[in-house]
Amino acid sequence: MSTAFKLSEAVSIAIHSMMLITQSSSMINVIQISERLGASKHHVAKILQRLVKEDFLDSIRGPKGGFKLKKKASEITLYDIYKSIEGDLSPEYCVFESKLCPFDKCVMGVSGNKFTAEFVNYLKSETLDKYQNLK
User: What is the per-residue pLDDT across 5-50, written as a single tens digit (0 to 9) for each?
Assistant: First the structure.
């Protein structure tokens, strides 16, 4: 079955990892996160290192190491996480991702632009603290 909306695997892993780290009362490591998400530990590690580089996480090496939030959960939006992986979302929507269009007005543009704006606003309004008790 098809869906009208799809996040990249990297963004999905980043958001879900950040939620797991937010919910954890102690350090949580790549293996624990990858097992919970059913994702490759190498892919999870790469994404988490990006989030460390973007100053969302602290990373501690070693057998008792893992990841913890560097900022308060209330200061990190889902858009912050999305942007750290994919970059800013373009406000202009084009199904063909092309500057050349055979039409004067985009058939999908109005609805695509509206959906993108609403999606960005939603991501910016959602902070990790809202998900601390989510199971």
Answer: 788 999 999 999 999 999 998 999 999 999 999 999 999 999 999 9
The structure tokens listed for 115 are 């959906």
- For the four alpha carbons of 125, 35, 31 and 40, in that order, the dihedral sign comes to negative
Alpha-carbon torsion (7, 11, 16, 22), positive or negative: negative
Task: Provide, for the chain, the percentages of residues in helix, strand and coil under a 3-state DSSP scheme, each rounded to the nearest 5.
Answer: 50, 10, 40
| Residue 72 to residue 63: CA distance in whole angstroms | 25
Sketch out the chain's domains with CATH numbers.
9-131 (1.10.10.10)
Q: Using DSSP, state whether 68 is helix, strand or coil.
A: strand
Q: What sign does the CA torsion over 51, 128, 15, 17 have?
A: positive
- Nearest-angstrom CA–CA distance, 95 and 25: 43
> Model's pTM, two decimal places?
0.86
CA gap 99, 73 in Å, rounded:
39
Q: Could you read off the pLDDT of 39-75 as tens digits, one per residue?
A: 999 999 999 999 999 999 999 998 889 999 999 999 9
